[in-house]
Design a protein that fits this description.
alpha/beta; 11-stranded mixed beta sheet; 515 residues; 18 strands
Amino acid sequence: MKLFAAEQIYAADKFTIEKQQITSDALMERAAIQIFNWMHLRMQGAPVKIHLFCGIGNNGGDGMALARHLQEHGYNIEVHVVNYSEKRSKDFLINLDRLKDRKIWPNFMDSDCEFPEIHKDDIIVDAIFGIGLNREPSDWVVNLMDHLHKSEAFVLSVDIPSGLYTDKIPANEKAVVKANYVLSFQAPKLIFFLPDTGIYIGQWEVLDIGLDSEYLSTTEVEYEIIGKNEVLPIYKPREKFTHKGTYGHSLIIGGSYGKVGACILATKAALKIGSGLATAYIPKCAYVPIQTAVPEAMVLANSEENISDIDFGIKPDAIGVGVGLGTEKETVEAFSKFLDKNKLPLVVDADGLNILSENKDLLKKLPENSILTPHPKELERLIGKWKGDFDKLKKAKAFSKKYACVLVIKGANTITLFKGKGYINTTGNPGMATAGAGDVLTGVITGLLAQGYDSLAAAIFGIYLHGRAGDLVVEQVGYQSLMASDIIEALGDAYIDLFKMPEQSPEQQEQQEEG
């Protein structure tokens, strides 16, 4: 699914209006009907009071049009116009007149008014500001937002929580509506997935308002959302007449005294994701633990406690390096010499990243299309400090381009960057914030590379499967008890889940019943 920038959404509106020969207020009516249908399906005429807070732009126009449909179906509504400017959009005025024609008289609010009483059991529809917000809300509007939050009523935001920008972080966290649910038109927004802005959004859902499919399908975007529909075409099915050599040989280089477990997890994950063969290249102190924990793997041992030389007599198809590796002087030297002779794209994680960040000249030695998988602190060491998520993405994109690598920014919504484009993962959960989960991901991506997936596909598909395995197993063990080894055990279930039919939404169930 594509994520469109604000200017692209405006262009899509214009394109749709011209091609379909409709008016802008007719397009607004589509949006309002979709919101109403979503609410009505769930509320079924419930006698709850609905407060609609409408701005004076097009977002407010959406709220006005929604109010009319709610009133026509017998809902108890109260419309409040947040009168923050003298300017009015044309479609806002059209829908204001339509309300008045139906004897619905909005409560106009300004800096001198008292805020309406809202009870905890009421519903708030937030239609104050849309995607066009370009300045901080006035103090009295910020106070109104605080009033909405203190009511503890359920907040439904139209398209975007009011006060959020689409391209920068709000300076004042109090100047943003905290939405329990957001109904986003046609596509979600990038800000839904970033740590600095996603905190204002409980859940979100996309409403199709009929923007022109030609524009949507042909327009290039900077970011895409990765879900099941996006990874299914990537999947490589197994053929009948094949053998273990068909599915590649993964080499995991890592481990040091006290950090053997990282290499065990990565090696086991590489096999579990489907690599035909796997070898662990480790110090001698890890030999017995790995042979015992992963009997399916082969083992090559180096010096006693730390790897001091990386020289193996095998020809792997993919290499993952860094898990539990350590940063001893001899290990750094061995890693540098290894980079001089290795031509295969690498998966670099953990201490491999730490070595690169402390020896930036080694970055130039990375083979093209290598995959780097830093957590936030490792990323900071690589690209430097940032001022907010948008600055982080800008610097990370520049880094990815400079070193021709796939850069994986691990987090709640892991973002993969390659050649200036971002891919946002939708699987995973807070239970996966646990020791070793990153080592498992390294093994998963390495195992997919070994099977012939290209670097971008291996990263995107691996991150999806890794997160989906975590989602499936957390239903059994809970967030607090989820361990990295549980993720490995659930990778098979994640594969099977790819081909399960999705559960029907309430709208689909209703359509099926009507049919």
